[in-house]
Amino acid sequence: MHRINAVFQDYAWGSRSFIQNFLKLPQEGPIAEAWYSAHPKAPSLVNGFPFTELITADPVYWLGSPQGDFPFLLKILAADEALSIQVHPSKQQAEEGFRAENLKGVPQNSPIRNYKDSNHKPEMMLALTDFSALCGIRRFPDIVAAFQDLGLSRFFRSFTEFQHKQDSASFCTLYQEVLHKEKLPGLHEHLHTLPESEPWKDEIQWIKKLIEQYPEDRSVVSPLLLNLIHLKPMEALFLDAGIVHAYLHGAGIEIMAQSDNVLRAGLSPKHIDVPELLKIMQKQPYSPLLYPAAPGINMWHYYPVPVPDFLLSRIQLDGNTTLPQIPGPKILMCIEGSVFAQGTTGEMHLHQADSAIIPAAEPNAILSGKGHIVLASCGNLPS
Asked: Which of 113, 138, 218, 264 is catalytic?
């Protein structure tokens, strides 16, 4: 096993304290994400070398195969402000979109490019703090009720049709109007006057926060269109292809397939391709896949997902345990306490915020100590 050091992203929405305190960094300014992986955009350092170079030199040792890429991207994410509302494509959609943009000659670094690669990007967020997010379309009757109760129907011409039909086609028409870049006269002023009272208290509070961050954006009404989710520490949320979502506030460990494909849908000054967005997004109401924070000491707790790219597991250790028998490379991250990890080719002390990469060639390891460990691996539950 080998120590792996993160590479940082300083996006403007990032926290000015969480990752800095967690990783004991002196850096001022926002740090949004700490990346642990072999993503070509920002590969982590392993033994002082870019992880991508080590994999190229010996893919069998690191991946267990002479071909292929590192299967997942692991992050610590910390948001003080809302991220853009976005959707990720399926594998087939990504392959087709990537091929089509290549044939059109759209430069890889173009700001209007939708598909940076040919992979899908399912993802999971494991909360480290209280964490708020928007995830999936609400039930259509709930959207109608919210717009009627809060006097929003007069601002959107397509609402009347949606109110009568309450189907995917009429929702998409309404959503296109919401995503229009032009500021809607009187909308934000009206939203500011809404009382923060039940049954829409939580949604209105978030709408007012979003207005402060995006004062020209119609999509600040998104908490009324999408499910508003609150996670407690060690609870998790899974996002599959096509699910409209946005992380609003909080810190957590995020794992995803190794991809950079993002189609934005609001709360962003960046390029928004509405026709392509509507083509790939799931247009039906959606109930998010949520995972409880299971208690227990010295027991591995798994967060199984319906994709093979990744699996998150964790254990609150007080004593000894063996690493789950899951094929492929793995990343160990100590989020609390101190643990001694011993493998067939090396050993390492892991304190809070320390991480180690365990290559595919080293399937067995023993952990001992008192600490909280998160394990990132490929998406196969141990037998």
From this structure: 264
